[in-house]
Amino acid sequence: MPTYKSLTLLLTIGLMTVGNAIADVSTVDQKQAAMANIKIATITKMYQQDIDDQGMSHPVVLQQYADADLQAAMQLEQAYFNKTQMSCNIDYDVLWNSQDPDYTQDKKFSITDQGLVQVSLAQGSDIYYELSCDDSNKDNAACQVADVILDKDGKTLRKHLLKNCR
Question: Taking the mean position of all CA atoms in its chain, how far away is CA 96?
Answer without folding.
Answer: 16
